[in-house]
Amino acid sequence: MTEDYTRVAAADELEPGNGMGVVVDGIEVALFNVDGEFHAMSNRCPHQRAPLCKVGEKKINGEKCWNENRGGFTDQPAVTCPWHLWEIGLETGEHEASGKKIGVFDVKVEDGDVLVAI
Ligand code: FES
């Protein structure tokens, strides 16, 4: 239901292969565009709370941070934390090796807007 979702960005603000940070109801959310499919999760890595939205930036290991084939995830896209390269599944919010998880949120695009449900 639309009323459960909050508009966080225009879809064309976030290019494929990039992430951005937004705040919804006081919660830091990392928004990612994976080949045109949007994903949202907590913006804080389950290891030492690095801001996961920074994966698309060239600084801090940026070139290593997007991955489709690195690590153990074969069933879902993943991002790699810019600080110590933990890989986090975008659909489950899980880091497989440690079993630690962060929250993931429903995302949809309507009329060119990206909406996130917290
Ligand atoms: S803070 Fe993310 S891997 Fe260490």
TrEMBL record:
Q: Does Transport appear among the keywords?
A: no
Q: Which InterPro entries match?
A: Rieske_2Fe-2S, Rieske_2Fe-2S_sf
Q: Metal-binding as a keyword?
A: yes
State the UniProt keywords alphabetically.
Answer: 2Fe-2S, Iron, Iron-sulfur, Metal-binding
User: Known Pfam families for this protein?
Assistant: Rieske
Report which residue ranges the record marks as coiled coil: none
Tell me, what is one Gene Ontology molecular-function annotation carried by this entry?
A: 2 iron, 2 sulfur cluster binding
Record-linked PANTHER family: 3-PHENYLPROPIONATE_CINNAMIC ACID DIOXYGENASE FERREDOXIN SUBUNIT, FERREDOXIN-RELATED
Name this protein carries in UniProt: Rieske 2Fe-2S domain-containing protein
